[in-house]
Amino acid sequence: MKSCLLQSLSLLVALACSASSRAVAEPSDGFQKPSKAELKKRLTPLQYEVTQEEGTEHPFKNEYWDQHAAGIYVDVVSGEPLFSSLDKFDSGTGWPSFTRPLAENSVVRKVDNHLFTTRSEVRSKRADSHLGHVFDDGPQPTGLRYCLNSAALRFVPVEKLQAEGYGKYLPLFSAAATGGPATKAPGTDNMEHATFAGGCFWCMEPPFTNLPGVVQVLPGYTGGKQGNPTYEEVSAGGTGHAESVDVTFDPRQITYDKLLDIFWHQVDPTTPDAQFCDHGNQYRTAIFYHGEDQRRLAETSKQAQEKSGRFKAKIVTEITAATTFYPAEEYHRQYFKKNPIRYKYYRSSCGRDQYLDGIWGKDREHEH
């Protein structure tokens, strides 16, 4: 992407949050935001950078991305209740993600035109703290994903709600407060994963997006040895990772065989370490199987393509066990929607569609 402009996120070094020194009760409507000088005294450098200067913390290296305890998340500046653990889910992005706020009027959305794209920024209403962004690719019932910075939040566990002035939220956690079963993230029961590499992950997201039974399509990196690789590191080669997509799907609505068929319709499986205008091991084609059933189905599918006579050269797509999948940076996600003109230009100039039309003809699936 390669021929397109590289974008970079401003990532900050994560610092531990000293919640005890800043514990505040739920504010009254008369809350007055402290001065910048006072905020710099009360907040850690990272908290100030995120909430007051629209900073972004590292994915997978922040306090709450993997937090599963029951409770609520409040604005680190004002103490205003914002989100509940009951609406928290694992988005795979490395940031705490929620399907909805505790109350719609507790957060404000603003247009954010940074990073060469338009996004919907989320800020707290009372303190005007920058929290993160909201996207329309979350699970049901809302279809939204509030992707937030841990540094903008303070977690108040159920057992401390009453003592810290948030007692009115206790009824929401009757099951958790009495030792009942933890609430599962919406839309995650009985889900499976399918992971594919087909060159530029910008081009591999659209074919699987919005299919009945597909819950989420996430671009990222897998198949290498380096932990937490960045886009710049992977695209430069040497990490061993391939640009890939991880598809979360409900096998009761769509089969793995169907996903395999869609995969073959998107790639040139005969070119080793390249796809169209992108060259290097990071652009290889691969099927990363999750379990023996997927391995068997992938092998059978590959054999069927080899016997079809459609491809004149040997199919070199590797079939290998799935390893850790590292989600790509946020600006890569659904790039085809965020930057449609640039995406279409890149795709056309690379010759992907011309090749696929020639191979598949009328059988071509045009989800691109």
Describe this structure in words.
Helix content is 21%, strand content 23%. It has 368 residues and is an alpha+beta fold. It has two domains: 11-177, Peptide methionine sulfoxide reductase (Metal Binding Protein, Guanine Nucleotide Exchange Factor, Chain A), CATH 2.170.150; 192-363, 2-Layer Sandwich (Peptide Methionine Sulfoxide Reductase, Chain A). The strands form five sheets. The chain has a six-stranded antiparallel β-sheet with strand order 5-6-10-9-8-7. The longest helix has 16 residues, at 292-307. It starts with 10 loop residues before the first strand and ends in an 8-residue tail after the last helix.
How would you summarize what this structure contains?
With 368 residues, the protein is of the alpha+beta class. It has 10 helices and 19 strands.
What's the topology here?
Elements: E1 11-12, H1 36-42, H2 45-53, E2 56-57, E3 71-75, E4 81-84, E5 88-89, E6 97-98, E7 107-112, E8 119-124, E9 130-135, E10 145-148, E11 153-157, H3 174-177, E12 192-198, H4 201-204, E13 214-222, H5 231-235, E14 242-249, H6 256-264, E15 274-275, E16 278-279, E17 285-289, H7 292-307, E18 318-321, E19 326-327, H8 335-338, H9 340-350, H10 352-360
Parallel strand pairs: 1-2, 17-18
Antiparallel strand pairs: 3-4, 3-11, 5-6, 6-10, 7-8, 8-9, 9-10, 12-14, 12-17, 13-14, 13-19, 15-16
Helix pairs in contact: 6-7
